[in-house]
Design brief:
single chain, alpha/beta, Rossmann fold, 14 helices, 46% helix, globular
């Protein structure tokens, strides 16, 4: 393991970023289904298998570069996440030569813990029955303990940090260069948990000159819809708990900055049921051979059964819509089959509702 003080000033300036440029592919299958041009931003190909590599990776990278050269204590990165943020922190830190540990809620499944360890986590600690208590334990007990052992503990928040939004914004820079005809998309669809990805998308749109022109649909699942409820009530809402299967969207309260961005006139929060998100996962696997978790399926769901026509006024075959395929590690074929057994009937009922609305409009 490389210690921080082994880097020279020149080395620090040239450390390779711990995320990659991902493809933007036009999907002929989903375009036909949705009735417009659907482009998939394949963030599932990131090193951690989710978009989190951008934001978390940028925060890790920035933290390394901002360290005082006279402080020779070894860096150790700490995250509180039972999912993609923790995996992104471990992946980014270990790729850059540093230790990383994660505190997860006691409800975190053994499969996720194994993935964190396989990615190179120095330690995976289970504590508390929710992210709030895991995070509290990390900040109040684990990091101070690391400091007492002579380490420099660096706290990595899952979503609420400007460096995370800045990292996520690089996605829009790529989209601008990748879009055909040198034009902007009509809309971007992204999933929302705490709001790090959504905040980055909004920042990126402003940076490339598309702010105010591109519609943005931040998507949540019912039972994890803190952003939509906040916008509806005109104030930040804290959910009493998360009841959705899309636990990666399980922030009971979005970041203040995400709430502020969601009040722009170009933003329309969307809430889908678990059945819609789950159905999109198995349909997406059939249509594109891409396996994603339900938190990602929530966004992909807008391409099916006329949902986009319901939300995007003036949708036509020439409309261009980018769906951020945010990926995620909390999925397997066995789990997908469980979803299908549980939600197929309800998903068909909901699909019929949107199809009826589509026929009424036409």
């Amino acid at each position: 393991m490389i210690e921080r003080n082994q880097y020279s000033v020149d080395d620090m300036a040239s450390i390779k970023q711990p995320w990659i440029e991902t493809p933007l592919l036009e999907s002929s299958v989903l375009s036909k289904i949705a009735g417009c041009r659907i482009f998939l931003k394949l963030e599932n190909l990131q090193p951690s298998s989710s978009f989190k590599s951008r934001g978390i990776g940028n925060l890790v990278l920035k933290s390394i570069r901002e360290q005082d050269p006279s402080d020779t204590r070894p860096l150790h990165f700490y995250s509180s996440s039972g999912g993609n943020a923790g995996l992104a922190c471990v992946t980014a830190a270990t790729r850059l030569g540093y230790k990383a540990s994660v505190v997860v809620p006691t409800s975190t499944d053994e499969g996720t813990i194994k993935k964190l360890r396989a990615a190179g986590a120095t330690e995976v600690i289970s504590h508390g029955d929710s992210w709030f208590y895991a995070d509290q334990h990390l900040r109040e007990v684990v990091i101070p303990g690391a400091e007492q052992r002579g380490e420099k503990g660096i706290y990595i928040h899952p979503f609420d940090n400007p460096a995370i939004w800045e990292g996520a914004a690089t996605m829009v820079d790529e989209i601008k260069t990748q879009m055909p005809d040198e034009g902007s998309p009509d809309a971007i669809v992204c999933s929302v948990g705490g709001g790090g990805l959504f905040s980055g998308v909004m920042q990126g749109l402003d940076r490339v000159g598309w702010g105010g022109r591109v519609r943005v649909f931040p998507v949540e699942t019912l039972g994890a819809d803190s952003l939509a409820q906040s916008v509806q009530q005109g104030r930040l809402v804290t959910l009493p708990g998360i009841t959705s299967i899309a636990t990666s969207l399980g922030a009971i309260r979005v970041a203040d900055h995400a709430f502020k961005e969601a009040r722009r006139p170009t933003v329309t929060p969307v809430v889908v049921e678990d059945a819609e998100a789950a159905s999109a996962c198995w349909r997406f696997l059939d249509d594109e051979r891409i396996l994603v978790e339900s938190a990602c399926g929530a966004s992909v769901a807008l391409a099916y059964d006329g949902r986009l026509r319901h939300y995007l006024e003036g949708l036509s075959p020439d409309s261009k819509v980018v769906i951020v395929v945010c990926g995620g590690s909390k999925i397997s074929l066995d789990l997908l089959n469980e979803y299908r057994q549980t939600y197929q009937q309800r998903s068909e009922e909901l699909a019929g509702k949107y199809s009826h609305q589509k026929q009424s409009v036409s």
